[in-house]
Fold this sequence. Notes:
Elements: E1 2-9, E2 18-26, H1 30-35, H2 46-59, E3 62-68, H3 70-78, H4 82-98, E4 103-109, H5 115-126, E5 131-135, H6 143-167, H7 178-191, H8 203-218
Parallel strand pairs: 1-4, 4-5
Antiparallel strand pairs: 1-2, 2-3
Amino acid sequence: MHVAGVDEAGRGPLIGPMVVAIAAVSREKEDLLVRIGVRDSKALTPSRRRALRALLERVLDYYALRVVEPAEIDEAASRGQLNLLEARVFAELVRQAMSRVELEVVYIDSPDPVPERFGRLLASLVGERVRVVAENNADARYAVVSAASIIAKTERDRIVEELKKKYGDFGSGYPSDPKTREFAERWLREHGEPPPFARKSWSTWSALARKRTLDEFSA
């Protein structure tokens, strides 16, 4: 029997996609993940995450990821269904895993502050053949979720670096990052609308547009 973990990277940024990953190992290999140093990706340096990603690709019995582009995120966010979108992507990956390995339980890092609610939603989407355990901060509690978080984070980092090569350095992509805000302000001045690789529904864009209007009016 196998256990799996699911986690995402990039739910909140202004720029770039969200990446969701699933990782699965046999019960006998769970301790091996701990021994090679797998833990929450946020607690690791970028170089350590990359090194562990290479190890995980050899150690895991199964892994997969799904890139959720900004347009898909915007569509769900505009209807207030971001958690539903995430649950559907999680379920998609779990069903794929179930076709490849025999899953006993899947641990989920819940985006919902009420993890039981998200767990019930996901269980309804995947059916009763696998037990679903949803917890907040599961990436810090279960090594198999930590493995998924490392895969998701390294993949998002790779995509972000490719975007920077094409469009310039926009920092972390998070609204709180001054470099990201500076990039966003400059893009709006030059193009009049958010870039195609950004979440246009994020309120940061409307706030920056209002600021731009006020600046122009007071100039």
